[in-house]
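pasting for ref. prot 1 ->
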Amino acid sequence: MPAKGKHRRPKSQRFTRSIAVAGTGGAALALPLLGATGAHAATSQSAADSVASVSNVANKAAESAPAAADKKAEAKKAAAKTYSVRAGDSLSKIAGTQNVSGGWKKLYEDNRKAIGGDPALIHPGLKLSIGKAAATSSSDSGASKTTQSSAKKAAAAPKAAEASAAGFTLPVAGAGVGTPYKMSGSMWSSGYHTGVDFVVPTGTSLKSVGAGTVVSAGWGGAYGNQVVIQLEDGHYAQYAHLSSLSVSAGQAVTEGQQVGLSGATGNVTGPHLHFEIRTTPDYGSDVDPLAYLRGKGVSV
C-alpha cells in the first residue's frame, strides 16, 4: 500500500519575468515581459510629456498674446497724443519739447485744419495732435489753391521803382528797433523772426507806410489785433499786436494815415509794433521790411 501522507502538488511555474517562445530549431527564446512593459510605459510617459510641453507652449503663447497686444496699443497711444497750446508757445517750441519728427513744419502739416493758413497764429487752448496726422479737409485744399493764386497774382503785379521817399514813410515815428528781421529762435514757428519790432508804448499812433487798400483788420491769433494793407506796388504791410484799430477791411488808405494804436495783444512779452512786409497777404512770404523801406528812400 502506498504510504500514507500528504502529497505536495507540484506548483506551476510562474512566467513572471519571461515567456518561452519556441523557435524553429526547438530552442526557446526568453522575452523579458517586465522590460517590454517598462519600455511601453516609458514611451507613453515620453508622449505624455511631449503633449504637456506643447500644451505649455500654447498656453504661454495664449497668455503672451494679450500682453503683446496691450503693449502695441500702449505704444500707439503714446505715439499719438493731444497737446494744449499754452501762452508763449510756438510751433517750433512745441515741436522741440514734444520731439516731433520733422519739426514745426510736420506739426503744422498735421494740424493745418485746426491752425488755419498761418502757422504763427496759434493761441492758448488750441488742441494740437502730436504724432498723428490730422485729416486734411477739402476746404484746406481750396485755401491752398487760393494762396497759390494770390501768390501768382502778387508776382505778376507791376511794382513801382521809386527811388525817393515820396509816398512812403515809417510805420511809427521816433521808435527804436527791437528784435530785428530774420533773428533765429525756437519761439517763432518758422524758426526766425519774420518781421521787425519797433519798441513803443501802448497807444502810440501807427501809420500806413504807403497808399493802398486794407485787406484785413481784426483779430489775428498770435498776432493779436492786426491790420494788413496791400500797397500800390503789390507788396503787403502787416501791423500786429495793436491795442485798437482805426481802419477796416476794404478801406483805402493814404501814406501816413493812422491805421491803429500800438499795444500788446496776442502772443507778446510786452508792448511793441511787429511790422512785416510781404509779397502776399499770407504768412511765410516775408521780405526784409527795413531794406524795403530804404529802397523806397525812407531813412531807417
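and prot 2 ->
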Amino acid sequence: MQSSISVAPLNVEDRDQWETLYKNYALFYEVPMDQPILDTVWSWIFDENKQFFALIAKDDQGHALGLMHFREMPSPLRGKSVGFLDDLYVDSSVRGEGVVEQLFSGLSASAKEHSWPHVRWITAENNYRARAVYDKLASKTYWQTYQLICD
C-alpha cells in the first residue's frame, strides 16, 4: 500500500513522467502514440483557451503513479456544461492501492469548482478491472456509444 498518494493538476515539471504514463496508456489500448500526439495533448493541458485539464497522482517520493485527462463539455439538454473524462491510467505496479480513488476524488473536486453536475466517461467493454472500480465509484448509464468515422 502506498504510504501517501497526492493528486494535483499537472505542471510543466511533470512532462517526462506524464509522457511515460501516457505512452503506457496508449500501449494498453493498442493505440499508436508518437511525439506529435504527445506534444499536442501537452499543449492542450496548458492552453488557457481550452477547457482541458490533467491530474497526476504521485507517491511521497514524487514518482508519478497515474494520470487523468478531462474536459468541459456542453450538455444542450441541461443548458449547462458537464465534465467528460477522456483518459485515466494507473501504473500497473500500483493498481489496487487507492490511486484511482484518489484521482476520482481530485476529479470530483474539480467538477465542483467548475459547477459541473456530473462527469461522464466511456471505457472498453473488456476493461473488467477498471469497470469493477467504476461500478463502486459511479453509476453506470444506459447510453450506448457509437463512433462515426469521418476521415
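Residues 99-113 form the longest helix (15 residues).
The chain has a mean pLDDT of 95.
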